[in-house]
Design goal:
Blueprint lengths: L3 H14 L4 H11 L3 H23 L4 H9 L5 E2 L2 E10 L2 E8 L8 E6 L5 H15 L10 E6 L5 E6 L3 E3 H4 L5 H20 L12 E4 L4 E3 L4 H5 L28 H4 L6 H17 L11 H10 L18 H8 L2 H9 L11 H12 L11 H11 L1 H23 L7 H25 L5 H21 L1 H5 L4 H22 L4 H19 L9 H22 L3 H20 L3 H20 L4 H22 L10 H19 L2 H10 L7 H22 L3 H21 L4 H21 L2 H22 L8 H17 L3 H17 L3 H23 L1
Antiparallel strand pairs: 1-2, 2-3, 3-4, 4-6, 5-6, 7-8, 8-9
Length: 841
Amino acid sequence: MTTAASWAAIKALFETCVDLPAPAREPLISAAALDPAGLVELRSLLAHHDQATGAQVFMTESAAQQLAEGAARVGQRLGAWEIVRAIGAGGMGEVFEARRADGSYDGRAAVKLLKRGMDSAAVLQRFAQERQALARLNHPHIARLLDAGASEEGLPYFVLEFVDGQPIDEAVRPLALEQRLKLFLQLADAVAHAHRNLLVHRDLKPGNVLVDTEGQVKLLDFGIAKALDPLEGLPDQGGGNTTVGGVRPYTPNYASPEQVRGEPVSTATDIYSLGVLLYQMLTGIRPTGRRAETAAAAARSVLDEVPTRPSTLGETESQDSSWPLVRKQLAGDLDNILLKALEKSPERRYPSVDAFAADIHAHLQGRPVSARPASLMYLTSKFVQRNRAVVWTGGAAVLGLTTAVTATLLQGRVAAALGVALLAVTSLVALVQARRAATARDAATRAGDDARAQLDRVQRITTDLLFRYGDTVTHLPGGAQAQEAMLRDTIALLEPALQGSPDDIDLMATMASVLGRLAEIQGNSAIAASERAQEATTTAERALALAERAWPHHLADWRFASWHIRTLIVRGQLLRAGGKINEARALLELAASRARASSHLQRDGEGHMYMGTGVANSHLELALVLNHPVLPSFGRIDAALDQYRLAEQALRALLARRDDIALLDRKAPPGGLSSENYLTHQIGAILGSRALIYLRADRLEDALAEAEAAMEMRRRNIQREPRNVWWRHGLMSEANVWAMCELRLGRAKLALEAATLAWDTMLGLAHDEGEQSKWARPAVRALIAPQYGWALLVNERPSDAAEVLEPALAYWRNESGPEAVLKAAQVQQHLLAARAAATKA
């Protein structure tokens, strides 16, 4: 990784060497003593400059001269294709219209004939390797690649579907902003289709994106950029971790930073180039390199310049005649969307083209976008814009309730997620309907039918609150606190309805589900501090009391049954944490039994997935009661491993139900929890727990294998959903186990890598969730600190180790029980060693 300091050194050395002949450069480069990564970067920049200078020589021929030479090729045969006319010429070669000479293709075709100097055999070999993948690109906005070959002079050529159109940056000039965005969505859909077929374009630019006479986008040249890449297919001596030095072909004005540095390309490369294109489509100018006069300067600008926020560009900076009007429309959402796509770091861009397009769709529909922080004013304004009639006809009372509910939900710090905004709106409706239902129940008997209908609507809305939006926000930073506030308001307003009809089974089931959801937030060890155990116990016991009466009538209703199982599990966790392992085991066995009973009654895929998860989670919690590394348990290792096996079998069976997973994800709100990620998260928990069992049994290789498998799942989940609190907590836990394994195996560097990951993840969660969260408490730090301190010590950082270990020792000395005594002894041993080593140093 290139730091800011090393990049400054590279830049200075490049500017010193760039005008020197190659022999004179070498002594300067050698004297600079750059690290290998810096050396690769410098040589790549110099090579790009040299290539650009050569291209300038090639282009010193006038366009008229090139076209005249192209006209001489009219009638020439290229394989089965006959050139009809010259269309244009550029740095890579010439473009012609052609027809199929043997009559087997009636449509018009375009031929790209590459310039001299290309290695025809290698280019065509690389293209042939891509042919099968390219054949899968059947999309209305992708021009088909028909053929490829070499001319009689040995020049490579490619034959494409002919598109009679304009480059997209020219085509959008007379269009309004909304029409420009819709054209861009056609392009995004085409690129997303290619990515789903494991193809990256690599060279997205206006010349490769045409708009035909019917207003349809056509994307050209898929496969050509990869075929032209001389580094493609080279063996990687570093096992995939080595940056290959050399020159990759790209168009500097539209290239991503990683392309300029000569690094391997990915889908993130296309996302950046799409950002450049959209910036140009909306502003009329490029985000960087606007003053660059050479290809090398344009390439450097991609690395050095920060794209200007579009709406802050001056009125005279764009050549677009409609710019003053468009500029005002860019402020806010579109500013943020463009800057997110143009992040220098691939990890900070949109995770996919689909996510990029989803924000454009959201903007067009007046919904919040993921690229913009979800402030109270922002979400409220979006809601009002989409629902003007409802807000104005609802009067001040409804508007006041909207503000109060949204303020309660957000508290000014919930993560930027559309699910949070949807939760606020859904909850608003739920509260209004609940109030109306309660009022109707208190009215005369003649209003009974209306009250029943109102209550039915409340129950449907509450179900959405729990199932559609519940997990969407709980896993986000601040989301658990937000949903708890909403659940409390919902319970308070449902209470009068339940008091008015204490024997209403349907209402009991609804209230039991809401209370169960609240108990899970209060008592689930993954998201709540231990101090809330009694509060969670009270909530769970009331939920279970109501559910017992409703169970015989609703065991086939997966919505109710799922929350009942989850409430049983939460209560079992609380009992286990309190040392009541017999009661915990009995309750968790009941949860497993009821989950299986309800699962057998499910007929639709959604219900089967929810109840199958209930079965798996019941076995997982039973395993922890049978054997737990810290909390009281029966200490039965073999029985616990059997329960882990049953849980893993159930989860892997659910993962195999791809259609049902897709169904759940389609029904989830934007930004919702991925079903696949949740299932792999639970499997990761099983692998991590087994790793601890093997570690305590001194089966170090088995423990390491389980820990590494768990880490792989955690990393994959976080890559897909980087802000998910559950996934990050799992990463922290599994990295801590991984550190234990590496420390026991005596591998110091890997131990420090693992322990640092656990420590930094904990600090990140504490920062995001606040001082009252479990990750900011001494108990969690004291669990991670022994491994982190030990790893620092064995990596010869004794002062840092002592700083970490001292508060951990104080914590464990204040705790009681055999586990605390062992931890205190371990921490003290390492702390004494750290102090001694620090004194010697």
